[in-house]
Structure formats: structure tokens, C-alpha cells
Amino acid sequence: MRSAEDAMTNTNRSNDVHGIRRQMSRWWMWILLAGVLIAAIVPRVTHGQSKTSSPQRSASSPGGGSRNQQPRAVPVVAVAAKKGDMPVYLTGLGTVTALQTITVRSRVDGQLMKVAFREGQFVRPGDVLAELDPRPFQVQLEQAEGQKAKDEAALENARRDLERYEVLVEQDSIPRQQLDTQRATVAQDEATLKSDQAQIDSARLNLTYARITAQIPGRIGLRLVDVGNIVRATDQNGLAIIAQISPIAVIFTIPEDSLAQVLPKTRAGVRLPVDAFDRDMKARLATGSLLTTDNEIDQTTGTIKLKAQFSNMDEKLFPNQFVNARLLVDTLRGIAIIPGAAIQRTAQSTFVYRVKPDSTVEMRPIVVALTEGDQAAVRQGLVQGDVVVTDGLDKLQQGMKVAVRAPGQ
Prior knowledge:
Elements: H1 2-60, E1 74-80, E2 82-98, E3 101-104, E4 110-115, E5 122-123, E6 128-132, H2 135-170, H3 176-209, E7 211-213, E8 218-220, E9 230-231, E10 240-243, E11 248-255, H4 259-267, E12 273-277, E13 284-298, E14 303-310, E15 322-339, E16 344-345, E17 350-355, E18 361-365, E19 367-372, E20 375-380, E21 387-391, E22 402-405
Parallel strand pairs: 1-22
Antiparallel strand pairs: 1-21, 2-11, 2-15, 3-10, 4-6, 4-9, 5-8, 6-7, 8-10, 11-14, 12-13, 12-15, 13-14, 15-20, 16-17, 17-18, 17-21, 19-20
């Protein structure tokens, strides 16, 4: 009886557990279904709200009103074309050359006894530079003078004999042939006396050559021979070198096609100005004038040499120095001048962006006559006062609105 009751109790418990499980399964199914519905409804609601709010946002946001707002002006730097004069230069590579250069040499052989100059010293014509031993030349002079005195006595004796023979011939005391012989003796002694005088002059000249002097003004270089050495007239190196550097010359070249711009001026006697610049073409070293042109064109380079002269009082130019020579050949007067940065070039034309009164730009074709440094002379296309853009060109197009500011702002 008790076993039947226990079995009944277990059966009821099992039914309760199954019922709870079925109830929980239904709840999970309802929760899952609710989640699916929420997942399907939320995107649609969000999308609808975005459509509803987007016109309001586009109307209120600053970036959404691009159709109604004007395009923003492009900031640029611009300057006005000015009317002025533009010099026309020819530039060539040049070398500074001493106007005169000599090698100081001795004209006689002898021992160097004294050096009277300092290396690098400026000398003038007549300044004593060195002295040789004068004693051998003094001895030669004395010998020549002694020989002349001897020959003068012989000549005086021959002349007196000639006077006596002339009297005796008139008296027929001696033959006339003896008189003629005596006359020849006198002439011979006179010629000997002239030779003696030449020997004296030569000895005196050698004595003068023992003192070596400067022949041109300029700066003397380094000493090549020391005191005590035997100096010979045949020595090739000499004692030193003198270079005239004030005034000084610059030899430079220009293309042969540019010669037509130079020759008419030089033939008319015009002294064309020439400026000498350093290697970087930044610092002007000196200003001079064109001296002459060469007499032929170098066929290998197609250039011609020109020679300019500079006073060089400040000694900024030095022999063999490399310089850039700039020759002024003409001047363009009353022409429109603009910065070179404003010029734009294409395969078809050269143009600038001109700023019109309504602050828009236009592409204006121009004809450039000359470019010198950062300035350009415009022959056609611009007049005085036209405003051209020099900075911000990469953003510009025809008709664009610009906001102009002056250079440096």
C-alpha cells in the first residue's frame, strides 16, 4: 500500500517539473520573438528620423548652404605695373688681367749684392729694386778711359806731323805720298778715338745696369733670387714680377650674335659702362668702361673677347681673379615693368593674371621685351597701373574672385 503511494507521489512531481519546463520554453520563445521584432523596427525608425532631420540640418549647418552662398575669394599677392627705364645688359665670364706685366731681369752678369724691395710692395718707374756688384764694370770704365787718353795723345801727334808735312810738301822737301799717308793716319786715330768713346759709354751703361730699377708702376711679387747668387742676363725666371693693377683690365667673352649691339657704339666713340661682379653675381666689385674688342671670333665657342678697364683704386680686383662682367649696351625707356614672378608661360603663349576692378582675374597675354634679375619689361599687353598677381598663381583660373594683398602683408 505504501509503495503505491510513493509511486503516485513521484509521478506527480515529474509532471510538475515538465510543466515548469514547458512554461519556461514559452517565455524564451516570446523573448526571442520580441528581440527579432525590435531588430527589424529600430533601423527603419532611425532611417526615417534621419530623412526628416537632414533638410533641417542642411538648412541650418554652415556647410550645407553652398548653393546659396558665393564662392570664397582666393587670397593672392599682387602689384601694379610701373612705367620706367630698363637697362639692357650683356653678361659674360671674365678674368682679371694686369694692364701690364713685366719680369724683372738683369741686363748684365754679376753677383747680386742687394735687394731693395719688399715682397708685395708697390713700386714706381725708376725705383731701385736690386744692385749687382759694380766693381767689374767700374774697372772696365777706367780701362776704356785710359785707352782713350792714350789714343787722344796719338791723334794729337799725328795731327802735328800732318801740319809739318803740309809745309814740307809745299817746299818739295818730301813726296806728296807721305803727306797722304799721314792724313790717313790722322783719320785712323780719330776713328780709334771714337771706338774708345764707345767703350767708355758701354762701361758706363753696364755700371748703370748694375742698379736694377722698375720700369712700370705696380705691385711686385715674390723674390725669386736671394742675395749672393750670380745673376745672368740669360736667366728666364728673373728676379721678380711686376704687375700693374691700378688701373687693371678684365677680359670677358660675349656671344658672337651680341656683337651687333656693341660695335655700333664703340665705332661711334661711346665708352660703354662695364660692371664686375663676383662669382655668385651678387656683389659688384668695380665699375669701369669697355676698352676694346678682339679682332676675331673664336670659332670653337662662338664667342668674342672684350677688354674692359677699371681704375681699381680700392684693389678689389686682383690678377687672374674670376669675375662676371656685365656690359650696358642700351636702355629701354618708358616701358611697363613688372616682377618676373608674375609671368606665366605655356607652349602657346606668355601671360599674366591681371586683376580687374571687380576683383576677378583674367589671363592677359603679354610680350616680354627683357628680363633683368627679378624684373621684366613688357612691350605689349600691359600699361602703367595694371595690377598683376605675383603669388598664389597655382590656385587661379580665368574669372576667379581674388582677395588682393600687398607684398609683405
